[in-house]
Write a structure and sequence with these properties.
By secondary structure, this protein is an alpha/beta fold. The protein has one domain: Rossmann fold (3-Layer(aba) Sandwich), CATH 3.40.50.1000. The protein is built from six helices and six strands. The protein has a six-stranded parallel beta sheet, with helices on both faces. The model has no long low-confidence stretch (mean pLDDT 93). Bound molecules: magnesium ion.
Length: 170
């Protein structure tokens, strides 16, 4: 039952991701969700901590690619500001966008990790393909109305996973 919804890691935010560990596991690229994972929902304000995180990731040899379900125009603006390519018109958990992301980074499923904040889009989509998945807590509680509804169920599942001791940190 947990198979496609259980992330490999569950951390507070992207800054908790252990680049060293990923390298040990032969991960070469990080596909990453935008809203409430990299940036607060519907925002393109980038702070120094984020810039530094991306710089460090690149220095460690990782390629990055944004995979987002949000509007193409905004993703393009953020993608340019961050200097990271993006797959637009995404429909997670559909497999196509994940495959497109890996086409951009030039990596295989086993060489790619996905980072996102939602179980039913990010985790489900990436796990179906067999990628390593890192779930982060959403940056803010501002988001689409329907996402808020889905969060109620998501919260329940995450609590249950936590109680069963299934969620790992680095
Ligand atoms: Mg998100």
């Amino acid at each position: 039952m947990w198979k496609f919804l259980l992330p490999d890691f569950y951390v507070k935010d992207i800054f908790q991701i252990d680049f060293e560990y990923l390298k040990q596991k032969s991960i070469k690229a990080i596909l990453i969700d935008l809203d409430n994972t990299l940036l607060p929902w519907n925002s393109c304000e980038i702070d120094d901590q984020l810039i530094e995180w991306i710089r460090r990731g690149r220095e460690e040899g990782f390629k990055f690619c944004i995979v987002s379900n949000n509007r193409a125009h905004r993703i393009k603006t953020c993608s340019e500001k961050l200097g990271i390519p993006a797959v637009t018109g995404a429909f997670k958990p559909g497999k196509r966008v994940f495959l497109k992301g890996m086409e951009i980074t030039g990596t295989s499923v086993k060489e790619t990790a996905f980072v996102g904040d939602q179980l039913f889009t990010d985790v489900l989509g990436a796990k179906r393909l067999g990628m390593m998945v890192i779930l982060v807590r959403p940056i803010s509680d501002r988001e689409f109305f329907w996402t808020k509804i889905i969060r109620l169920l998501e919260r329940k599942l995450i609590n249950l996973m936590e109680r069963k001791g299934l969620l790992k940190k680095f």
